[in-house]
Design goal:
Blueprint lengths: L3 H4 L6 H6 L2 E5 L11 H7 L6 E4 L17 E2 L6 E4 L12 H4 L4 E5 L10 H14 L3 E5 L38 H11 L11 E4 L27 H10 L19 E4 L4 H10 L5 E8 L11 E8 L7 H15 L19 H6 L3 H7 L4 H9 L5 H14 L1
Parallel strand pairs: 1-2, 1-5, 2-4, 5-6, 6-7
Antiparallel strand pairs: 3-4, 8-10, 9-10
Helix pairs in contact: 5-6, 6-13, 7-9, 8-9, 9-12, 11-12
């Protein structure tokens, strides 16, 4: 398998990249097959970027979720590092002043296949800003670590009024596309030119990879793209596990297995595990346990809960599994369980769970005490038209 960064030294566009005033949007997982970071790859090719841009968690990847990141200077090259994750929604896009310093933007961001993982939206916002400023964009694509099979898609696209930075455009929760495919899809729809043009988008696609394949099949280690995404197993559960950010259940931050370990001080993990087993949902075992998070929700408190062990990644449906888990937890202790109402990803007026699921339907059904399995199956059902959108996205990349 050759990802976009692997192909960079042999690209016909390398001459253009070498001569350009270059900006690079990247993070710690922007590495090639030898685990060499893009900055070092470019240095070895004689390319000196003028600017680096960093997404959520920062160019160096040190910041926790939803933590504002300051701009900085790269200690090795002396180039400025511009943060694209600040206190305001406007901070998510490169400014005209920053873009005036470059004429080509190189993007290399590893994604994990869920619409609320924000790197793909940072890439899209950067493309929009670059196009408006007359800056050409080259995106080095990477495979989806949880696979690109149509059968794996989960969750409908968002209802009107529920777009946000955890879903800037209508996309299923588990979308089975790559960053390059999603960005090319919306670029084409917005009339941004594709291919080797003066001001547009060029996607360097992955070669030699079976799109249904998972990270475990790659010929390289999985490099964690954010602080709480340590393993490929984390990525498998994340499309479901991230839903717990919209509740007062711990999603395992502050443990060594975030999103796999979930719970709360008032939760009975044995009861929860038994109820999840009774659903007939496939591909996992919920193991009861107790744990004590070291930070974030319930820090320092002993929590009851479960660890979700994926036994068959091809039949496991993370969105359905964690929706059922949330509904069972709500039923177990309704006076203790609550949905998050605080500000979430720049939005004050819509509950986080609604932003994550894409509508109010799941939250209202859980609050009404509806059957957990019915909720899980209904909310995780994808739009029938998404398979056609996937073909449109792949065609857009081919046009690049």
């Amino acid at each position: 398998m050759h990802i976009g960064l692997d192909r960079l030294p042999d690209l016909p566009q390398l001459k253009r990249i070498r001569s350009a005033r270059l900006g690079v949007l990247a993070h710690p997982a922007s590495v090639d097959r030898e685990l060499t970071h893009i900055a070092a790859v470019l240095d070895g090719l004689g390319v000196r970027p003028r600017l680096f841009f960093g997404p959520e968690h920062g160019y160096g990847g040190e910041a926790q979720d939803m933590a504002s990141v300051k701009s900085d200077v790269d200690a090795r090259s002396g180039a400025r590092i511009v943060s694209l994750y600040g206190d305001r929604f406007e901070d998510l896009s490169p400014t005209a002043a920053d873009l005036a310093e470059i004429d080509l933007l190189l993007i290399d961001l590893a994604d994990v296949g869920a619409r609320y993982y924000t790197f793909v939206w940072t890439a899209l916002l950067a493309l929009r800003a670059a196009h408006a400023a007359g800056v050409h964009v080259v995106l080095l694509d990477r495979p989806n670590p949880i696979g690109g099979a149509t059968e794996s898609v989960e969750g409908a696209t968002q209802a009107p009024g529920f777009l946000s930075f955890v879903g800037l455009e209508p996309v299923p929760i588990r979308h089975s596309l790559t960053v390059g495919e999603l960005v090319a899809l919306f670029a084409r729809r917005e009339g941004i030119p594709l291919g080797d043009v003066d001001c547009g988008l060029r996607v360097v696609a992955v070669e030699g990879h079976r799109r249904e394949g998972l990270a475990a099949e790659w010929d390289r280690p999985f490099v964690f793209p954010s602080p709480n995404m340590p393993t490929a197993e984390t990525a498998l559960v994340y499309p479901g596990g991230c839903l717990l950010e919209g509740t007062n259940l711990s999603e395992g931050r502050g443990t060594t297995r975030p999103f796999e370990i979930v719970g709360a001080p008032w939760l009975d993990g044995h009861d929860l595990a038994a109820r999840l087993a009774s659903t007939g949902l496939l591909g996992f075992i919920a193991r009861p346990l107790t744990f004590r998070p070291t930070f974030q929700k319930h820090a320092g408190k002993i929590c009851g809960g479960v660890q979700i062990h994926v036994t068959d990644p091809h039949t496991f449906r993370p969105v359905a599994t964690y929706l059922a888990l949330t509904a069972f937890a709500s039923r177990q202790q309704p006076e203790q369980f609550r949905f998050r109402t605080e500000r979430y990803e720049y939005v004050d007026t819509i509950p986080a769970f609604d932003l994550l699921t894409g509508s109010a339907a799941a939250r209202l059904a859980i609050e009404a005490g509806e059957d957990p399995l019915s909720i899980a199956l209904e909310v995780s059902r994808p739009d029938a038209a998404w398979s056609e959108v996937m073909r449109e996205a792949q065609a857009a990349v081919a046009a690049c």
